[in-house]
Amino acid sequence: MGLGAETRHRIARRAALEITDGMVVNLGIGIPTLVADYISSDLHIMLHTENGILGMGGSPREGEEDGNLSNAGGYPVTIKAGASYFDSATAFGIIRKGLLDVTILGALEVSEKGDIANWIVPGKRVPGMGGAIDLAQKAKKVIILMNHTDKYGNPKIVKECSLPLTVKEGAHMIITEKAVFHCADGKLVLKEVMNPYTVEDVLSSTGANVIVDEKVSVFL
Amino acid sequence: MEQKVNKQISIEDASRYFFNGMSLMAGGFGGVGAPPSLINMILEKNIHDILLISNDTGFPWIGPGKLITEKRVKKLIASHIGSNPEAGKQMQEGFLEVEFVPQGTLAEKIRAGGMGLGGILVDVGLGTVVETNKQKVDVNHKTYMIEPALTADVSIVYAQKADFYGNLVYDKTARNTNPLVATAGQITIAEVEEIVPIGSLHPEEIITPGVFVDYIIQSKGVDWKWVWELKQGTGLQEEQRSK
């Protein structure tokens, strides 16, 4: 919350680097949706949506929207050559069978072990999990894009999640406006800091044990 | 062949299958592919105390969201209510009981109901609150939850085309849960944009075989504005929300 457009786009631009030729990818709502803008058009990528498209394209031109062709958030989209439509059982069969190479999701909290909480704040906000549990548990690679801290400045990367989990040890990577972390073998490794933040900035606003990689780089 | 089968009925005749306290399954995803005329009929006929099974609750003025806004639903089985603040409010107030099911699991539970199965084995949600009170079974050295099948007194779906036998063809992402929901009702009523003669749909293009469909009605079309049609600052969004 409260991240400026430029920052949101920088996170999306960084996440797009994780997408390589031939991948099948599902993008969640919010910052993850922006990632599509940064995927090189030279790559052959199939974007998957929970509401039944493999091969989703960009937004239509104004006036060319089709009420029966939308993304999972309900906004109009187009399709690219080779796309297919299918029902919800097939949409989730693709996920459950492990055919998604990457899913990019938002989160409320992520633990140092890679536990993800992103669907419920008991007593406050109870939107439901939608497809988040299926995606986070079954995609080959799960990338979390989120604010580094909540609106009160509290770390969202923590030792243990306080909120009900979406998945245990599901996250492979976390990208925030301050840093890029890898999650592997129950450990959180700081790999990159986002310009203009420093390693110290990152560590002081992170509530988990962090291993600082020997070769931390800066992402501009 | 002479046309002897005709499942088309009026929306008035269709209304006789709806009753207070019924279980109702509705196709649609974020309101896309939800049957607008049938939902309006349920509102007009004052059907209430509904157990609604639906992927989500749409938006307050879109799709099954209207049934929530008008307080016709007492229990909901869905994967997501986040786009409908009214559903969240009624849940917090204790008016609406909500059972959340992961989206893919919900789809398969409905499919199982429609395919005559007792349930499914699924591991999505193990290690989370989803597994609370779930019966489990080990198969091939893996642990699964047993998720019972879902059926309903009446299923309502939206399709692009039907022939008079009830064979259905959908349109793009308006397909979503509709082919699953269409199979899982004790009675299935399909609202369609266009009704065509038997024999005019190619057998290869039919997604739902008409044997699953009891009745078809002619749609009066979508009567709501989509979220993306509501331009910010025009007040239209607020007006729609308050409806």
From TrEMBL, chain A:
Pfam families xrefs: CoA_trans
Superkingdom field: Bacteria
Protein name: Acetate CoA/acetoacetate CoA-transferase beta subunit
Lineage: Bacteria, Bacillati, Bacillota, Bacilli, Bacillales
Transferase as UniProt keyword: yes
Organism (species): Fictibacillus barbaricus
One MF annotation (Gene Ontology) recorded for this entry: acetate CoA-transferase activity
E.C. number: 2.8.3.8, 2.8.3.9
Database matches in InterPro entries: 3-oxoacid_CoA-transf_B, CoA_trans_fam_I, NagB/RpiA_transferase-like
Keywords: Transferase
Keyword flag Protease: no
Family: Belongs to the 3-oxoacid CoA-transferase subunit B family.
UniProtKB/TrEMBL annotation, chain B:
Protein family: Belongs to the 3-oxoacid CoA-transferase subunit A family.
UniProt KW Transferase keyword: yes
EC number: 2.8.3.8, 2.8.3.9
InterPro entries, alphabetized: 3-oxoacid_CoA-transf_A, CoA_trans_fam_I, CoA_transf_BS, NagB/RpiA_transferase-like
Protein name: Acetate CoA/acetoacetate CoA-transferase alpha subunit
Entry keywords, A to Z: Transferase
Naturally occurring in which organism (per UniProt): Fictibacillus barbaricus
SMART domains listed in its UniProt record: CoA_trans
GO MF assignments: acetate CoA-transferase activity; butyrate-acetoacetate CoA-transferase activity
Domain of life: Bacteria
SUPFAM superfamilies: NagB/RpiA/CoA transferase-like (SSF100950)
Signal peptide as annotated in the record: none
